[in-house]
Amino acid sequence: MSLYKKAWLFTLFNILLLVALYFGLPVFGRVLGTLGFLVFGFYILGQGLVAMTVFTCPKCGLSPFMGSQSLFTSYSPFPRKKCGQCGHDHTQTE
Ligand SMILES: [Zn+2]
After folding, report:
1. Residue 28 above 70 pLDDT?
2. Is the distance from CB of 83 to CB of 57 less than 8 angstroms?
3. DSSP code of 75?
């Protein structure tokens, strides 16, 4: 499977999870209280980290969710087809 497809699956999984959490949040908050929201916050941070570190360009290591390797770069919630740094085609399987 290509990196582009894998990154998309990850994005879709997160969207589904967020929708499920959105409807489950009142219940979640009542059961776990403040701790539940802390866990939720850490999850949000964690999945962002996963998107930056697990899904990387095989050539230059840049995440397909990032525009370039510079400090001031654009972040996208959806993966890019082409690497912003080296131009590698993420839709191709290695
Ligand atoms: Zn690259």
Report:
1. no
2. yes
3. B
| Model pLDDT, residue 44 | 80
Kindly give the residue spans of alpha helices, DSSP state H, lying in the chain.
3-32, 34-53
pLDDT exceeds 90 at position 23: no
CA of 62 to the centre of ligand 1 (A): 5
Where in the chain are the domains? 1-94
CA distance 47 to 13: 11
C-alpha–C-alpha distance, residues 21 and 18, integer Å: 5
Residue 11 has pLDDT above 80, yes or no: yes
- The pair of structure tokens assigned to 85 is 């740094």
For the segment 2-22, the average pLDDT, to the nearest whole number, is 89
CA of 55 to the centre of ligand 1 (A): 11
- Given a contact cutoff of 8 angstroms between Cβ atoms, the answer to whether 85 and 62 are in contact is yes
Q: How far is the CA of 19 from the centre of ligand 1 (A)?
A: 31
